[in-house]
Amino acid sequence: MTPSPLPLLYSYRRCPYAMRARMALLQAGRPFEAFEIVLRDKPAALLQLSPKGTVPVLRLPGGEVLDESWDIMRWALATADDPHWWQAAQSPPNLALLQCNDGVFKRDLDRYKYPERFLDEPRSREAVRADAVAALLLPLEARLQDQPWLGGEQPCATDLAIFPFVRQFAAVAPQWFSAQPWPALQAWLAAWLDGALFAACMTKLPSQQAVVCPAPRG
């Protein structure tokens, strides 16, 4: 692939880690090239940059490679015009929520969404769901009852980082999720789902082809 003056993001549309990286780049207004991979035919260039072969992977114009989504978000947002997006995410409560999301919640989310992949899981699916709720969703509901975003009166990188995983959890059993007594969390999720940033993030791109994303903010 011919080197580009723009950052090149290897991504997969439905991957929550790639989703939060794309949203951060879009929010920061950073133009980039997006390369939508096919999971069963990962490009050799991706594997050369990051042998673990997972997305997202961001190749910067100078050759530096970022292959962790939070590092990509940091690169996009830490020097953005609005410093609140990154600074508010560095508070101890928000860092703790991120750690929970990427740790115990993601573990249980996988077992809840794909029980057929975890046949040796000793807990029932309902118990797995209850543990995921207790670990992250109830703390989120409590936080969001006092403020509209995890960043306070404005969103921050923590909102972006956690949203794709809560979206995935809610989509497993939408009627059950909507029936839960979590008005603040449900309003927060709906605001992201209905927002222009998420719509831009989920624009369908051709597979195995680098496409320039101008990343307009709106």
Automatic annotation (TrEMBL):
CDD domains: GST_C_5. SUPFAM superfamilies: GST C-terminal domain-like (SSF47616), Thioredoxin-like (SSF52833). InterPro entries: Glutathione-S-Trfase_C_sf, Glutathione_S-Trfase, Glutathione_S-Trfase_N, GST_Omega/HSP26, Thioredoxin-like_sf. Residues 5-84 form the GST N-terminal domain. PANTHER family: GLUTATHIONE S-TRANSFERASE OMEGA, PTHR43968. This is Glutathione S-transferase. It comes from Ideonella azotifigens. The lineage of its organism: Bacteria, Pseudomonadati, Pseudomonadota, Betaproteobacteria, Burkholderiales.
